[in-house]
Amino acid sequence: MSIFHSINTSASALTAQRLRMDTVSSNLANAETTRATINENGEYEPYRRKMVVFESKDNSFNSFLQKARVGSSSQGSGVRVKEIAEDDEPFKLVYNPNHPDANEEGYVQLPNVDPLKEMVDLMSATRSYEANVTALNATKSMLLKALEIGK
User: Fold this and answer.
1) Which of 12, 28, 58, 66 has the highest CB neighbour number within 10 Å of its CB?
2) Residue 52 in contact with residue 86, Cβ under 8 Å?
3) Backbone angles phi, psi at 61, to 5 degrees
């Protein structure tokens, strides 16, 4: 285990949480977008909510084999983004016959973005980011104190 192992772990979490906050911002910015993509029928579709999926960095067969062989306890090696998935929830239908994208019955398909859910996700990402900054600062101060031992 390297002396900078915990710093690398915190750095990977900070990067992942920043991407999560960017994704939430993108979802909120496109909460009213009715023409985001063109489907296979050549028609416009509203924006679909995106979600960030994380996975452990040590998710390979080699890492599990190494842990089993050495018999070490799990110490974690950080997180990385596995994918940015689209939410499969149906679009919201709102009656607005004057909208240019309204169908024959007067309903408009709006994105499946719930601002309340996005704000909760944003607060969770912010808290995780702050916790990782605190862990990074604690590690940094411990390393500085260790350097003072030799004086």
Assistant:
1) 12
2) no
3) -65, -40
pLDDT block averages, 10 residues each, the chain of length 151: 85 96 97 91 93 87 74 73 95 94 94 96 97 95 91 79
CA–CA dist 94, 105 (Å, integer):
11
Q: Which amino acid is at 58?
A: D
- Helix axis angle for 5-29 and 115-148, nearest 10°, is 160
Considering the entire predicted model, what is its pTM?
0.83
Handedness of CA 133, 134, 136, 140 (dihedral sign): positive
Secondary structure of 106-149 in HEC code, one letter for each residue: CEEEECCCCHHHHHHHHHHHHHHHHHHHHHHHHHHHHHHHHHHC
Which of 25-47 are b and which e, b meaning 16 or more Cβ less than 10 Å from the residue's Cβ? eebeebbebbeeeeeeeeeebbb
- In this structure, what token pair is assigned to residue 115? 């601002």
Pick from 81, 99, 90: nearest CA to 23 = 81
Would you state the structure tokens that stand for residue 112, as one six-digit string?
Answer: 């499946």
Which residue carries 């169908």 as its tokens?
103
